[in-house]
Amino acid sequence: MSRHEIPGKKMAYQKVNADQRAPGHSQYLDNDDLQATALDLEWDMEKELEEPGFDQFQLDSAENQNLENPETADLNLDSIQPATSPKGRFQRLQEESDYVTRYTRSVPKSNPCNFCRLLKILCTAIILFIFGILIGYYALKKCPSNATSSAMLDLQLYQEILQTIQAEDIKKSFRNLVQLYKSEDDTEISKKIKTHWTSLGLEEVQFVNYSVLLHLAGPSASSVILGSSGQCFRPNGQPCSEEARTHSSQDLLYSYAAYSAKGTLEAEVIDVGYGNADDLKRIQKMKNTTNQIALLKLGKLPLLYKLSLLEKAGFGGVLLYIDPCDLPKTANLSHDTFMVSLNPGGDPSTPGYPSVDGSFRQNRSNLTSLLVQPISASLAEKLISSPNSRTKNGVCSPLELPDNDERIVNMQVQTVTKFKTVTNVVGYLKGLTSPDRYIIVGSHHHTIYGPYGQEWASSTAIITAFIRALMLRVKKGWRPDRTIVFCSWGGTAFGNIGSYEWGEDFKKVLQRNVVAYVSLHSPIRGNSSLHSMASPSLRQLVIEKNHFNCSRRAKCQETNVSSVQIQGDADYFINHLGVPTVQFAFEDIKALEGPSFLSEALFPKRATKIEEMDPFFNLHETITKLSGEVILQIANEPVLPFNALDVALEVQNSLKGDQPNTQLLALASRLRESAELFQSDEMRPANDPKERIPLRVRMLNDILQDMEKNFLVQQVPPGFYRNILYHLDEKTSQFSILLEAQERCKLLASNETLQEALSEVLNSINSAQVYFKAGLDVFESVLVGKN
Known about the structure:
Blueprint lengths: L6 H4 L16 H23 L10 H9 L20 H7 L3 H4 L9 H31 L3 H17 L4 H12 L8 H13 L3 E15 L5 E4 L5 E2 L14 H6 L3 E2 L4 E9 L5 H10 L6 E5 L5 H10 L4 E5 L18 E2 L29 E4 L2 H8 L6 E2 L2 E2 L10 E7 L1 E15 L4 E11 L10 H20 L7 E8 L7 H9 L1 H7 E6 L9 E6 L4 H11 L11 E2 L7 H6 L5 E7 L1 H5 L13 H7 L4 H19 L7 H11 L7 H25 L7 H13 L29 H12 L4 H35 L1
Parallel strand pairs: 4-8, 5-6, 6-7, 7-9, 14-15, 14-16, 16-19, 17-18
Antiparallel strand pairs: 1-13, 2-3, 2-12, 5-12, 10-11, 13-15, 17-19
Helix pairs in contact: 7-21, 8-14, 11-25, 14-21, 17-21, 22-23, 23-26, 24-26, 25-26
């Protein structure tokens, strides 16, 4: 398939007769018809037996029933009169004294044999009744319900598929992949992945290429010169005069901020801490920040947001570092350099539209006016003149430049911009009954122009292991109900360029068809704790999988499943398509407890580092099986395993705070009521095979699939998610845009920003409440129409 063909054409919807009955045929309606037929027969028999004196008979019981059920009070019961009496039909006939004279038929004479005959019939009936009860009891005991048996069969199928995933196979695949990063041609790795996936049997594996603007490292490393001594240092703290150590030369080239301004700046260094609103407010009272150099710590807030505040404050340059106190003790990164990207997503030359042939290219060589240079912690210590040992009594002292000290620094940033080709590898496993509904599974591969960290090899080895296990079952004749799309993205390090361009290219198709996104980005970041990220609608499913599949090494806690901002290619699907997303990863406990957003730094990890964290690749196997079971369940369950009520509960929890907004709380309460009604009235029956109707299941899944789209807002601060259901980190539960607006009020005298944020949240909650209510109305209209 060529790149211009849309996935919808390749995965055209195939009509499948899941039910041979006429459309909309309902067993509820069948039951009503049977009851009405029985009622008519009973009425005809009664008319034959009634005497004329009872023509005007009205039932007290019918009136009482009408009073007890006011919802049916409008019904006209005169036209439907049950032919029964309080004493019973046949008892009433026997009590009539002139019963015999009223009818021409004679009463049968008494016969002694009749009693014996009736007794035999009664005994036979009792024996047959008891025998029937025993048969039914043992039959039900041995044969589970359809729902239970179906669920058990699915679970057994999933386990059979996942059992073929072995750690040793993942290890071999990982080692084969890391040998390819030395290739000078970026397409070499992409070709290897495509060939491997095709050999496993995956359908329609193809390249999707885009020519994009990349911001690359310069011919030589950037430098920082201390004004007081004139000493020159490289970003890792090494003197410029010394020969590069082994591997250092390559590392230094990738110590830069992609899409930063370039040039030279000599100015005073001002320590701004983490660069939040409080830090800037304090500093601006003491010093003139115009065209000065900020010494900034990474973490706690999105880097793009902090740079936007520094830019507005008038700074001209930024030296960016990670405080050693924020890292796990086992991480010795004092002399390590890193790369960051200042690109919010996609090709900067085509913002908001795909980089296809003929597209207009904007001139955006840099995305900020600031000169930004990442430096190691050891160089930050030299700038601050801090002693090497900053740990006393087991307590780490953060790096800090005294306010009254003055440091003059000359910083030089050298980078180049070039148009390069970024390649995505995309393969399909078409669904059997709903091929027009996609579950996207995303990993990423190495881009030769970027840093050569090895987490991409873990990501690619895991997705390949799952494809291998899945295709073994497909070769035996099985297929999932929905289509699974496997993607290996290119250009991730520069701002998720490959996934953004593909998403923008096929946006209309993806908006309609994508059900969920499963991210495999950087799955092994540590080895002490399993960290699960999930959209609110998928949280219950992920918690269930954690309970059943957690590794013995992992500390699996329910509180460890959260909806927080993450790095990687899931960004476009979360923030532009509103797609429910899930991601599993192993982390260090210290990293989870420390500041958020440290993962924005891309360190050049080597293969040996990954294998040190997971020498037997058991953690890789766990991630593969956890992700695989979630993929299988979403792709194969008749009703999508999404929880509407959890979305409403997340909204209510996000409004808790010191000064809750009563209007928002009232609206959130109505949203919860609608979600509860939707879940009980529509989702519960649909999950029972006896009550399941294909047409209504399809309508239900469409509602579940799109419900998170209501929480996409138009305007957010740089680096913040447009999907407000996701928090900045696990330590905050409030809506991130509200927290930021409150912080912004500290810098500005006006509260206009806060009012705008409140309006965005209010409109999102109202949209979701209307969405659920409209869904209920549609289901009710369909049911009434069938009646």
